[in-house]
Fold this protein.
Amino acid sequence: MGETKQPHLNGAYYGPSVPPPSKTYHRPGRGGGGGCCCNPFTCLMNCLCTCVFQILCTILVVAAVIIVILWLIFRPNTLKFHATNATLTEFNLNNNTLHYNLAVNLTIRNPNRRIGVYYDGIEARAFYQGQRFATTQLQPFFQGTKRTDNVRAEFRGQNLVLLGNREQSNYNGDRSSGMYDIDVKLYMRIRLKFGIVKSTRVRPKIDCDLSIPLSSNGTASSGVYESKRCDFDWR
């Protein structure tokens, strides 16, 4: 390429001429530059999803803080159930029909200082060898704080009970010893009272695995009943 001399520059050489800058054009809406959203609907959905996620996270954090604060204030303790006494005056299986007369006294202890309990429903069920043979309803009541209440479940009547060979052998053993292994379970519907606030209804189950002597005329034929603490299950 030949040298170019321009007369108005007094004959001095300043190198080759610089070409003018090329012009580039960008059509809007094409390509990924500029941080702009290509589709307004997509932008709107992204914003909504982000807002919903942030709101849910905030709600969860606030709820967790409230739960911790309530726990620190009320310090809830589990209710305590004891089968303090049980009387069995009849328990005779004849031709797959069980004749029974059973009464169980229970104490319910609420150890909490700031939580009351509404017992809206209490259903007591009696089981022998895994089979339910009786059901009774107990009276609903409200239990205040730091309080112990007594309830009594009575089962009397007859019912069909089908025992297998193993269960029949266990019954014969209980009959010989005069001590019968009977399970009494309480199926409850309760609400907790935190000051002026009441919780939703929960359904705990109480399981009392008892060994009860058969008695006649107020005297046990064999053995002595011992008070038993029952298992508490929130289910």
Notes: The chain has a mean pLDDT of 84. Residues 115 and 196 are 10 Å apart (CA to CA). The longest strand covers residues 179-194. The radius of gyration is 40 Å.
